């Protein structure tokens, strides 16, 4: 008969690997034992560990961690897609970020990963018309992680935000599946219009550090936006754009730029 740990690995290999890595981490650094036990090994599931982590990060004098934990547990029970997306984001971070060597790292330490999971909670609250609570989560994400994502924005699965500092995603923005972006990216508007005013990012897109994508424009699937670019017009699929304002400088160079994370352009060595 299979052991409970073997059964767990078959049901949820991501969670099983996190637990194994947590045990190894404690063996290597016993001073982290308390934090890792309470954050990982104390929990029976990935959803429970994630809810605990998010409640600690979002807590403040205005709202205690226990209350937030109840809210997050309720959200995960009502909408399993939140946890499925969190797993996809975690695997994406491990596969694409060269600084990520363990599944444990995003859950415990990476603010880009944690910020997007907190956004997902805020978006669920927004869809449930719990508007003020959604705004509270947005505020705490901004204060805690330096990331400002409006809870009405729509973001797909398998998203990695590397470093994440100063990322801004506006209210009517849409981000597809398997997108990667680096720090200081803005998906913003161009004025005071109140309707659909933010970018629509296709699947598999790579957005370099400091890039600004502004207005109700569409970025085609599997395109690359170079670091520091300002994109003001639609971009076709599978292209590389660079400059201020951005222009097409070549093909994307591969089928999935967001996965390869190749940010060079062989035409002139930049991207």
From TrEMBL:
Q: PROSITE patterns from the entry?
A: HEXAPEP_TRANSFERASES (PS00101)
The organism of origin for this protein: Limimaricola cinnabarinus
What sort of enzyme, by top EC class, is this?
transferase
Provide the Gene Ontology terms for cellular component: cytoplasm
Reactions catalysed according to its record: L-serine + acetyl-CoA = O-acetyl-L-serine + CoA
Q: Which UniProt keywords apply?
A: Acyltransferase, Amino-acid biosynthesis, Repeat, Transferase
Recorded metabolic or biological pathway in which this protein acts? Amino-acid biosynthesis; L-cysteine biosynthesis; L-cysteine from L-serine: step 1/2
- Per the similarity annotation, which family is this? Belongs to the transferase hexapeptide repeat family.
Protein name (record) = Serine acetyltransferase
EC nos: 2.3.1.30
Q: Which Pfam families match?
A: Hexapep, SATase_N
Per the record, the gene is cysE
**Could you state a single Gene Ontology molecular function term?**
serine O-acetyltransferase activity
Looking at the record, the residues that make up the Serine acetyltransferase N-terminal domain are 14-118
Lineage of the organism:
Bacteria, Pseudomonadati, Pseudomonadota, Alphaproteobacteria, Rhodobacterales
Q: Which SUPFAM superfamilies match?
A: Trimeric LpxA-like enzymes (SSF51161)
